[in-house]
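Section 3.1: Structural characterization of target chains.
Under the original work plan, the team committed to producing a structural model for every single-chain target entering the pipeline before any wet-lab resources were allocated. The record below documents one such target. The sequence was received from the expression subgroup and is listed exactly as submitted; it comprises 142 residues.
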Amino acid sequence: MLQFPAVSEAARDVTTVHGQAESGVIEAVLWLKLGVETIGAVIIALGILSAAWLLVKAVVRRQTADFTAIRLALARYLALALEFQLGADILSTAIAPSWEQIGKLGAIAVIRTALNYFLSKEMREERREMTPEGHVVDRAEN
């Protein structure tokens, strides 16, 4: 059973209609958050399996000079998983009752957003380097 993080007094008093409604919303959000976090974890696991498979194929073919394609494949999964994890963090703020918890969630969200930003930036740069027309794309974007 899910436990409520320090919920309001009204939510603890499930004898009132308001308390019952608030308890129900909190429980639904906690389950939704768990589902979104699980999806993020599954995406990371799929990314690791996919990258490991690509690595094994590269080693068997003796094409180990450049792992950029493998890194990009894993980075795409990680970026998507970070979006799901950030979504779960946002759900947490909907039920976070204290400023301390909101502050912690905010810090986690900022870190995840920064990771996603730099990961996406690196993916764009490496994709440009891998394509023959990368220098043309650079001139067009600048």
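Residues 17-60 form the longest helix (44 residues).
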